[in-house]
Specification:
It contains eleven helices and twelve strands. The protein has about 350 residues and is an alpha+beta fold.
């Protein structure tokens, strides 16, 4: 009888130890996202990345960095592989040169409704793992108001052209709108990654409007027909130089004043003050851009003193100085003061 009890107790203990040992020998089940990320978060619906580190926090940060890098790379590829932005009057299209910000930081991911898994510690390699993921539809819904706000800011500047007829003023506004629209376009690229179809449907008109700006600027430049009136000019030197400068800026020039939108009045004053036989000149240069509304632009320059015993030589030297001054300064000064850029 005692032997039966002993054998029964022995079997019971062996069973308990067997169960305990088997429980300890079975490894902890790994989460699906660590085994098969695509199955856990299909690419059609999610962006997801896994990171690892010596701590749970390091693993999450690693995953966020991977995801941010993925976004940056894809945004750059979209910018460089698509003719998304700048459309010219002749129908040709330039890639956007104004968009410089491709990078997406880890803090930017908050705008995309980023979520994260519970970190998992893998005993085999003594590392923590975590996944971060973004639901495309949810992220687009959260990001859409930011894109809309920046588009509205762009239009608030762009629409100022509707009440403006002066071509220089319209070019100035278009340039300002182009600058204001950079944030809109940067956000648009990011929205395209989340959903190209929804982004185009919602913001396609805004994109096309932004894309039309270079062509609209060229159209207004075509209206900036210039007529030059030069009062003192040795052998046509000044007229030739000023014609070259504005032709390079794509402004049309006419020989008939009535055909011009702007009259460009160029005045060279010799400010001559002779000392006996010596001819002394303190030349000054003045350029006025005029139209029916008044003066649109003024450029003034004092030139170097000229000393000569020959009046023809003195005038030639003064004109040469004027030409050099115009060549060095006029284009830069004109673009700066009119705020139209190049």
């Amino acid at each position: 009888m005692e032997m039966k009890k002993f054998i029964s107790l022995l079997f019971t203990l062996l069973f308990v130890f067997g169960v305990f040992y088997s429980c300890r020998s079975v490894p902890e089940s790994e989460p699906l996202w660590l085994v098969d990320l695509e199955q856990a978060y299909p690419q059609k619906e999610f962006f997801a990345k896994v990171g690892s580190g010596n701590s749970a926090a390091d693993a999450i940060l690693s995953a966020q960095t991977e995801l941010a890098s993925y976004f940056s790379t894809n945004i750059k590829q979209i910018v460089e592989s698509t003719n998304l932005m700048e459309e010219n009057t002749d129908g040709s299209v330039d890639k956007a040169k104004s968009v410089r910000v491709y990078a997406v930081s880890t803090t930017d991911l908050d705008f995309f409704a980023m979520e994260k898994t519970e970190p998992f510690y893998r005993k085999d390699d003594k590392k923590w793992y975590a996944a971060v993921y973004i639901n495309r539809a949810k992220a687009w819904n959260q990001f859409e108001p930011l894109v809309r706000d920046s588009m509205n800011s762009f239009y608030s500047v762009f629409n100022l052209t509707k009440n403006q007829n002066d071509p220089l003023e319209k070019i100035k506004i278009y340039k300002a709108a182009q600058k204001e629209g950079e944030e809109f376009i940067n956000r648009l690229y990011k929205a395209v990654i989340l959903s190209k179809e929804r982004t185009e449907k919602t913001f396609g008109e805004g994109r096309k409007t932004y894309a039309s700006i270079p062509g609209l600027i060229q159209k207004e430049k075509g209206r900036c027909i210039l007529y030059f009136n030069v009062n003192e000019d040795y052998a046509g030197m000044i007229r030739a130089k000023i014609n070259q400068i504005f032709t390079n800026l794509k402004f049309p020039v006419t020989e008939t004043e009535s055909n011009a939108f702007y009259k460009v009045q160029v005045k060279l004053d010799y400010n001559q003050n002779n000392e006996e036989d010596l001819i002394v000149m303190n030349p000054s240069l003045n350029v006025h851009f005029l139209n029916g509304d008044g003066v649109k632009y003024v450029y003034d320059a004092a030139l170097e003193r000229v000393l000569s015993y020959n009046i023809d030589k003195a005038k030639k030297t003064s004109c040469s100085q004027a030409v050099q001054n115009l060549d060095d300064n006029l284009e830069k000064d004109f673009l700066l003061k009119t705020e139209i850029g190049k």
